[in-house]
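Inputs:
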Amino acid sequence: MTLSEKNLKNEIYDFKKFYHLIKAFTISTNISCKAFNLNGEKIASFKGPESDTSFCKLIQKLNQEKNYCMQSYIYGGQQSEKLGEAYIYFCPYGLVNWTVPVIKENKVRCFLTAGPVLMHEVDNLLVENAVKMCPMLDKRRKEIKSKLSKIIVVDTIRVKYLADLLLKLAKIIMAEDAVDLNNKHELNIFNAHLVENINEIKRTYTLQGKNNKISNFQEKEANLITKVTSGDKEGAKKSLNQFLGYIFFYNADNIEIIKCKVIELMIRLLQVVTEVGVDYNVVSGIKYKYLKNLINAGDFNEISKNILEVLDYLIDCLTPLINVKNRNTILIAINYIRNNYHKDINLEEVAAQVGLHPVNLSKMFKKETGKKYTDYLNEVRIEASKNLLLRDDLPLVQVAFSVGFNDQSYFSKIFKKIEGVSPNKWRVLQKEQKNFN
Amino acid sequence: MDREILNELTVALQKGDAIKTQKFVKIALKKGYEPEQILTEGLVSSMNTIAEKFKKKQIFVPDLLLATRAMNAGIFILKPKLKKQLFSPIGKVLIGTIEGDLHDIGKNLVKVFLERAGFEVIDLGNDVPVNYFIEAIKKFKPQILGLSASLTTTMYGMRDVIKALEKEGLRENLLIVVGGVPITESFATGIGADIYDMDGTKVADKAKEKLKCSNF
Ligand code: B12
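Outputs:
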């Protein structure tokens, strides 16, 4: 067992669980799984099948100063973070690995990488590539061939699902941070469809020319509105995608025109949902935020991200409190948090109270309250800390501990984030105010 | 001529079988197929089918990886046959894929088209940062710069390259051609490129035309 538990403890929610996950993946799949930090250094692993690694060990020794492996771990990790999904890739020597990010409090802490495997039998191309990457192997082709032959061969479909599996496992440790990752993934899928749509238009455009541009455009907008008003989120996203495909295709030379058209669309949507009965105040709140975002957007990605968020939000408003049951569940959770905030409570514990999986609770919590579980817990704690701060005799560290933080500087940071001033400053300000009165 | 062998090639590539792909490319060459035909009707058309299947979720990223490997293996065999002996190239092209983008099949193809048409092509590869483009342009002094991007997240990297060129005073004597899946004619004009070509087949002619008209 190679791990630097100390370094990791602060980074990962629950180190034991984390390590167990690596072990479970390795043993059950017979494919090595390791954790790397952001510098590409191994921080935890469970000893996988010996055969897997003998080629890697040799090559790492010979190509020590080149660091190809490390670079590929880092690159793979960054890609997986950007995509919000598992990143599957060939390493520089032609072996297959996949990587998923582990995120805590919006920051990537480390990456989980599984592999190496092969997706085909060892062939000369693979051996020659290894020699090209590491010329010292020139006279050792037979040896590397035999080492490579020990690496397991997994077919493509299994690789896809093994990668999915690793991501699912990682999401368990990430708990609510997984929500952000899912959002990223969703945006990426949305953009992939957008590219396909643009491509489609590109092809038909050359065939049939410009003539049906306008009718198509209006049809796309009407389509979208019907989908929105009927609360069909998936359908609405599809229509939005086609709509954007059109605007992007015809106006890509002028991003300002694109922005105008998308803003027009947004206003139209806001109007439509208020007509259907969504409270105007609810809607106008987001109007200005997104108006600003859209005006300042620098490229397609930002535009589609923002309008997608608006769409999401509006449809959520429209699906009016349909689920009274969800409401109740959240109320129980909130109650539990309010009664236990001073203890070291975590999401799993709260989830157990309401009989939900932590990830599902976290999603539902965000949807129903508009806040993330930790943000809410922090708010409750900070609110409670204010009462204690009013008593000058209590040192900060004790205030922090009493409301459930186990670290004073973290408490101060969160306090400042929520209240805008540090706890000490807040204390002084309160006292001044009291004297003044 | 029987198309049997091209069909077999297509099947091998779609299965991601690199060795068979190479084998069928060799046989096709022996049978007298033009290397260009093997490339477009054998290799590229399979890649388009693969893209279609990927879109329909019939295959996934690992299949793309394997198919790309087979494609590259096939191109490796074709390459020496595709290259024309250039005694006096009609122009120098620098080509590369934008930073953050690993898709280089399309770019490689455009490179082949340009070389066949008599251009000398310097290839910077994929995932090329802006400053590499700038340095390379200073060093090689090409008349044409080709940029490729396949992702919505990298397409704006083209604009960044063009802006950087303007800033460095390198834009004026350079013909910029762009392409890639998400790139459209209007996007190309919008970012200030000179030539856009949907599938790279007309890029050489368009470039020759423009070079003739101007005094690059
Ligand atoms: C093969 C492929 C891959 C391979 C690339 C291998 C390689 N070495 O190139 C691999 C597996 C590595 C890959 C990875 C990814 N891919 Co990919 N990939 C494809 C796929 C299926 C085919 C691309 C291709 O080679 N086509 C064949 C060539 C010949 O066509 P072409 O590239 O369009 O090029 C032609 C023209 O565009 C033009 N052209 C191109 N460049 C230039 C330049 C100039 C100057 C000119 C004039 C013309 C020109 O001429 C070419 C010849 O006709 C496309 C789907 C598609 N519809 O294109 C997705 C696609 C591009 N990929 C996509 C995605 C999402 C990814 C990944 C994020 C997937 C992942 N989860 O890992 C990663 C990103 C990696 C990265 N950082 O770049 C999306 C992009 C969506 C988006 N939002 O932008 C697409 C559209 C698929 C989809 N619908 O989801 N991919």
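Remarks. Residues 60 and 66 of chain A are 9 Å apart (CA to CA). The longest strand of chain A covers residues 107-117.
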